[in-house]
Design a protein that fits this description.
7 helices, 7-stranded mixed β-sheet, 229 residues, Spore Coat Polysaccharide Biosynthesis Protein SpsA, Chain A, alpha/beta, 3-stranded mixed β-sheet
Length: 229
């Protein structure tokens, strides 16, 4: 096990529209799964790797997440007046995270198996890689439709296409963020540059993963968590 250290950014700014009525009075990361807010499950994974800083970007009902996260030692960054999406949100957090590689995490999934962040750290090779994404074989991606987002070759290089579902966690270098002119943009724009340079890599997760971006994912995720007991 390698003991490299990366700052962590949890993406928590979205409106959670797929959650329908459940996000009428709270942000999606505070929707409970197995008695705990979704973001607490994500935070627990981050805390296991002891990063130098854990931050979260916020927008929708930001004050509720600030109140929840501040006592837990998470630095919060409120996007105002507009939401910045994943790329803009990461760029806006660099004054807290630093300019080196960063771990980013979506906050609407439950993982069952080895900590995916530790797997990424153990496989990270900055000489070859500009980003390393955790992918899920579709058969192990619960409550997710589709055949995947990326195809992975035997060396771990990614290309667009069916094969692995992006699980929402990665290590990514931040150098290319400054090349994007828009203030609000998706990290897909940065990934496209890395793909063109053959420097976007992936791993295939060995456990199970559940998408909790919609109400139907809650029961499935709770069953997955209960299977640990």
């Amino acid at each position: 096990m390698r003991h490299m250290s990366f700052p962590v950014l949890m993406f928590a700014a979205g409106f959670g529209t797929r959650m329908k009525h459940l996000t009428a009075d709270r942000p999606k990361p505070l929707v409970e799964v197995a008695g705990r807010p979704l973001i607490d499950h994500t935070l627990a994974l981050a805390q296991e790797i002891a990063p130098p800083v854990i931050a979260a970007n916020l927008h929708y009902r930001a004050e509720m997440l600030q109140d929840h996260l501040a006592p837990l030692g998470v630095q919060t960054l409120v996007e105002h007046p507009d939401i910045l999406e994943t790329g803009g949100g990461l760029r806006g957090a660099l004054h807290v995270l630093g300019n080196g590689p960063v771990i980013t995490m979506n906050t609407d999934a439950i993982w069952h198996g080895t900590n995916p962040l530790q797997m990424l750290i153990d496989a990270w090779d900055p000489v070859r890689m500009d980003a390393l994404l955790m992918g899920i074989p579709p058969a192990q991606a619960m409550e997710h439709e589709g055949d995947g987002d990326f195809t992975m070759d035997p060396q771990g290089r990614l290309s667009r296409g069916a094969g692995l579902v992006y699980g929402g966690v990665q290590i990514i270098k931040t150098d290319l963020l400054g090349d994007i002119l828009q203030s609000s943009f998706s990290l897909n724009l940065v990934w496209d540059q890395m793909l063109a340079q053959r420097r976007l890599f992936g791993l295939s997760y060995e456990g199970k993963w559940c998408d909790v971006g919609h109400p139907g994912g809650i029961d499935t995720a709770e069953q997955l968590i209960a299977s640990d007991v």
